[in-house]
Structures are given as structure tokens and as C-alpha cells.
Amino acid sequence: MKFLVSNWKMNGDVEFAENFFEKVNRIDTKNRVIVCPPFPLLHKFKDFSHSLGAQNCSERTSGAFTGEISPLLLKDLGCEYVIIGHSERRRMFNESDETIYKKYKTLTDLNLTPIVCIGETEEERSEWRDVLSIQLNKFKDDGNLSRAIIAYEPIWSIGTGKTPTAAEIHEVLNFIKRTTHSKCPTLYGGSVNIKNISDILRIPSIDGVLIGGASLKIEEFSEMVRCSVC
Ligand code: 13P
Questions:
Q1: Neighbouring C-alpha atoms within 13 Å toward the C-beta of 216
Q2: What's the first-to-final CA gap in the chain, in angstroms?
Q3: 181 annotated active-site
Q4: Domains in the chain, start-ordered, CATH in brackets?
Q5: Atom of ligand 1 at shortest distance to CA of 86?
Q6: 154 Cβ inside 6 Å of ligand 1
Q7: Fewest CB within 10 angstroms: 66, 73, 124, 186, which?
Q8: pLDDT along the chain (230 residues), means of 10
Q9: Which of 51, 7, 6, 1 is nearest to 31 (CA)?
Q10: Buried b (16+ CB within 10 A) or exposed e, 131-162
């Protein structure tokens, strides 16, 4: 079994969600498929045969926080997973490691699984160990870590068509596993598509992938869901 996480980002509409549901629902697969549409489309996935996730949440569960989304409400809508710390949120919405850790705490306390994203920029590539160590610092010895998933998404590979080599991914995922005492699954994300997914899923240290753009092509994603390399 491998995790296949579809992150729609800020894409899709009601019609797309209905089509996606119809085509992907009940595909027979050994993989754990987690679909993460934008918040207003989550309700379209009621009775979905695969798993549902959100792309972000508040670190708090209720209160006067206009525009924030409670993880409790996400749970109510059927979400089991929440992506947190995606590089787009870190960079464009100034999310800090501290904030991401608070979200992780809230989620694990609620028995929701955080998918914690980490990764280095192109400029930081030669120092990836230092960058990832800082991003993992608060998590690595946390008692709830076995309830989380860590996703390595090098920022330079997101939406660019560039991926690290299989050996590079293996080295980084092993580093993450060592740092986190192998307590949780480790995923790779960044330009995964129908052409490279089999090779990527054959990497020994990988537990699954996060797929952005390619998961918006419903036929292509359906084929990836059926992928049996895994
Ligand atoms: P792409 O697959 O479009 O590169 O996006 C990866 C990603 O950011 C998934 O969270």
C-alpha cells in the first residue's frame, strides 16, 4: 500500500468535483488515496470510497477568528487528513514552524492525521539537511509523531516538471526517517505524474506521493490510483 495524496490547491469547481467523484469513487486499488479539494468542495465527497483531506486548517477549534477553518468542522465533514505547512503557505502566507507545530498538535489531539510538508528552495539545495532539520526540529521527538505523515516537497520541483533523482529522494527520505526515528510514513511531492510515478514509488524508502497538477487530470489520476507497483 502506498499513499496517493491529491492536492487540488485552489483549483476545481462544483462540476469538476462531481466529475472527479464519479470517476475516482470506487476504483479498486491497494493504495490509500486521499483527495484534498478546496474547503467549499469537501461536502461533495460525502460517502466517497477513498479518504478525504483538507489543505490547511486553523490551529484553534472555535472562536472569533473570522475566515479561519476549524479542524473540528473538517472532521465533521469527513476529513481524516489535513495538509499543513505546504511551502505555498509558508512562503505566501508567512506560516512559521511554530504555527505549523500548533496546527499539528491540535490535529493529532483530535485524531486527525496531519500531513506535514517540508522542503528546501533551489538556493538551499546544497544545505537541505540543515533546512529540513530546522523544519523537523519541533516534531522529531514529539509523542504524537506516530499519528502524522511527513511529506518531502522540494520547492524547486513543485509545478516545474523537475524532480530529484530516485537516489536523491531516497537519501532525503532516509534522512527524514532517521531524524524522526521512523515513527511515521514519509512521502515525496513535486512534479509527480503518470510517467514518473512508477519509478518514484519503487524507491525503497518511500511510503507514497503528493500529487498536485497531475491529479487534476482525472483520467491520468485514475490511472495513478490503479498503479500496482506499489
Ligand atoms: P505538483 O505535483 O503540481 O508539482 O505539486 C506538488 C505539490 O505541491 C503537492 O502538494
A1: 14
A2: 6
A3: no
A4: 3-226 (3.20.20.70)
A5: 10
A6: no
A7: 66
A8: 97 98 95 98 97 98 98 98 98 97 98 98 97 97 96 98 97 98 96 96 97 98 84
A9: 1
A10: bbeebbebbbebeebebbbbbbbbbbbbeeee
